[in-house]
Predict the 3D structure of the following.
Amino acid sequence: MTPFVGPGSRAVHLTAGALLAAALGLAPSVAHAQGLGQPGGLGSPPGGGLGGPAPGQGKKKSAPKTPAGPESHAASNDEAQQSLQTAEPSLPPDPTAIPPSVAKRIGTDATDDYAKGLGPKTERDFYGPYYQEKSGNYRFRTLFPLWAERTMPGDRASLFGFYYNRRSTDVDADVLFPAFWRLRDHETRTTIVGPFMHREREASGKEPARHDNWLAPFVFEGASADGSGYFHVPPLLTFTQHTAHDGLNIVGPMFCRWKGGPTCDARTADKIDMGLAPLYFYGHDETSEYELIPPLLHYYHYNDIGNTSVNLWGPYLSQHSPDGDVFNIMPFFWRSTGKNEAHTTLFPLFHYGYKGASSLLITPLFLSSTGEKGESTFVTWGYARYRGRTSVDMITPFWWHYQDPDIGLDTKVLFPFFYKSDSPRKEDTMVFPFYGHFKKPGLSDTTWITPLFRTTTDSTGWETNLYPIFYSGRKDQSSHTVVAPFFWDFKSPHSRSTVALPLFFRFTDDTSVSQLALNTYYKEKKVDGGKDWEFHFFPAFSFGHSPTGHWWNVLYGLAGYSQVGTASKMRVLYIPIKLSE
């Protein structure tokens, strides 16, 4: 299929401003970039002149000048070798001095060829509107504002009002501003008449011959001898460009992009994408092909790699691959086949499929399936059954019976009231929310009666709780008893704490005993040489004993006596009196 074919290549952008600057010698760098003129301005001082040769173009080599200083000769190999080995690096006498040849070039863009035309002396004549200057082979004359001319070896430029003329070795120009332009730049010739532009370039070096024709802003056309080209018609939304091996064409809503050929030809191109947006799209490459027609809900794709294809026409869908085929008329009929496999659905009446030894049948009334190992499943309204390595029976969503003979597990559930699971590793029974029994034979046994009473025994001890009042139990050699909030008793191998609020407190460990009972207090602790103990009967009297002495008090010291070693003292009316040192 070849919808359209057209030439194409890069468009060359040309502006009247750049042409004018090139013709008048005011913007040499821009004019040279456009390929239309060379630097050098009409009547410019020695730094630049009208139509002066561009850098590297039309250079005239002048005779070598005799050096002002004595002639020098290259040193012999031995002398050069010795000089390289013995000479020490040194700076010139004035490192920042600017050589005269460089100073003359500062502030000018004149080319070397233009500078070579200048002489050592410049003569200037001025007679009213007539001005002339000469310097060597360079001459500039003007009768302002009617005429101006600049001449130098191999280059002449003249300006007569709006007409500009130039003749040189590499660049020619005839410009009647702004209507007519005729330019030559080496092998490139350009003619502009109003909105029309024609340009030709002869073959040179690696650059092939080419031409461009523009009628701005309506038509732009160009072609090259290497097979590339372009053709643009913006008012018709037509844009084409191509090379010898690829291209892109756009004509309104139509487009074609290709590789592997000079034209948009689906029979010869290696890769192509084309279409009429948004109605039709087509493409192919070395291994695949596709077609898309959105209004017809059509899509087609084929791929050599894997030998796969997809074909869609509205509700019709077919797919092919080495693994199987698909044939659907959506959304009612679905059919897929493969190696030892097939599936068919007629929605909503039934679905049947098999793969190897397994199968599946679904109808509005029931579901039935078999597995690769002979397991089977049957589901209908209010009842479900599974038989395989394990078994499940379900009656309504509330009753479930599950069995796993490999581990001896039997589980029954009447949701949410009853749960029972028995196996060699555990026995669990729950009647929600009143009773629960959870047992791991030989490890633990827990019983709940209502959410408040719980008793547990295991290999390390036992525990009985009546929440939130009574807690009692033992773990290894530790035990506890709590009757909240009045009685607390915690016992371990090295300590014990007993509290009976508000009458009794007792705290013991391996080294001390502290006990408070009603208005009595007793404290005992181990010290070097024996025990240190004391007893208080509040507020009447208190007494104590240690390995080094003893003491007693009546009414906190109204009368009392204490002895530590050989020292002793007594208290009378709370006044201490020493009896011995």
Notes: The two ends are 133 Å apart (CA to CA). The helical segments are 16-24, 28-34, 77-86, 100-105, 112-116.
